[in-house]
Amino acid sequence: MSLFLKDEAYEQLVQMIDDGKFEYDKKYSLNQIAIELNMSKTPVRDAIQKLADEKRIDILPSRGIQLHMPTADEVKQHYHFSNAIEGYCVAELAKAYAKNPKNIYVRRLKYIMQDMKAYLDEQTDFGEYFALDRQFHIELIDSLQDPYFSSLKSSGMGFLNHPELQLNEKVPRQDVYACHEKILDAICKGNHSAAFDAMMEHAQLMTNQL
User: Fold this and answer.
1) Fewer Cβ atoms within 10 A, N terminus or C terminus of the chain?
2) What stretch or stretches form a coiled coil here (predicted)?
């Protein structure tokens, strides 16, 4: 069964955000978006409302929409969530790798890091770069092999599903990559405390930029 139009509009808008096609402090009209998506205004309006409920965009009465600028409290919540969830996962993965150096999740992380190198130049496609960034974090969460934890990767909390936050202050890709390297290095050394600390540094990088 095909998606309802509002769901299709939502997915397309999310992809546009993920690809960096929306800019902070720039207003976009409902009519403009509907034309770009080749849809009527009703499903687009419903999709926009869902994104507003998720605090990814702000609806400006009679003025259109714009990307949501996180409040200080929201940034703090993202920081705490990332450390609590991903920090625990990286620590457990380091322990698992110490017992089994053939761990499939660590192998996948290494491949992701190799692929990310091709997108460290800020002129290369942001969407492709962020897809790899996101996959890195997804592998960390999935490595726990706990269905509940894996379901959290779809959460609006944390920094995992908010590429627009990296675009806000132009978080350097090299800095993010360096954080990933530090996390992976600690995991490969079986040092769970260093892996947790590296994850905290990564979350702190994002928080400082915001």
Assistant:
1) N
2) none
Measured between alpha carbons, how far is residue 193 from residues 92, 107, 151 in Å? 10, 20, 25
Q: Using an 8 Å Cβ cutoff, are 24 and 62 in contact? A: no
- Note whether 9 and 76 are same-domain residues: no
Residues 14 and 95 in one domain: no
101, 132: one domain:
yes
pTM of the model: 0.82
What pLDDT, on the 0 to 100 scale, is given for residue 33? Answer: 92
